[in-house]
Design brief:
Layout: H1 3-19, H2 23-39, H3 43-52, H4 56-62, H5 77-95, H6 103-117, H7 121-129
Helix pairs in contact: 1-2, 1-6, 2-5, 5-7
């Protein structure tokens, strides 16, 4: 599993949870995002480690990816994406649900489109700013 497949799963999961108004599933989604953001144990990396028995560093080295070490911040863009999405969902669903009801739908569609096209504008902008 890679980040692209995982974003498709996230987008479909969130769209289904919003459509059927399953708040428990949405809160579980937020919990997974917060857990991944705090620990940096991302589901695609854990699944690949279980399937192939490799460490994430070994896996990227075998894929032939060059590692760039010139970053302004030593914080990963994927991790920051999860934090931002979790904060927006918490704010839109818990703190101010009446006026910001459309934001979770927009996030779900953007996650789905980012998975389909493999282009996430938020991650690209974070990497442009200088995150890993």
């Amino acid at each position: 599993m890679n980040e692209r497949d995982y974003r498709i799963i996230q987008g479909v999961y969130l769209l289904c949870a919003l459509y059927f108004n399953l708040n428990g599933m949405i809160f579980a989604f937020i919990g997974i995002l917060v857990f991944e953001a705090l620990t940096n144990w991302r589901v695609p990396i854990v699944v690949n480690r279980i399937r192939f028995g490799m460490l994430p560093n070994q896996q990227s080295a075998t894929a032939g990816n060059s590692i760039i070490t010139d970053f302004r911040f030593s914080f990963e863009a994927e991790r920051l994406l999860r934090i931002i999405v979790a904060l927006i969902l918490i704010y839109a669903l818990i703190i101010n649900p009446d006026s910001l009801g459309v934001f979770p739908w927009i996030i779900a569609v953007l996650l789905l489109m980012a998975g389909i096209t493999k282009i996430c504008p938020l991650v690209i902008s974070f990497r442009f700013i200088g995150f890993r």
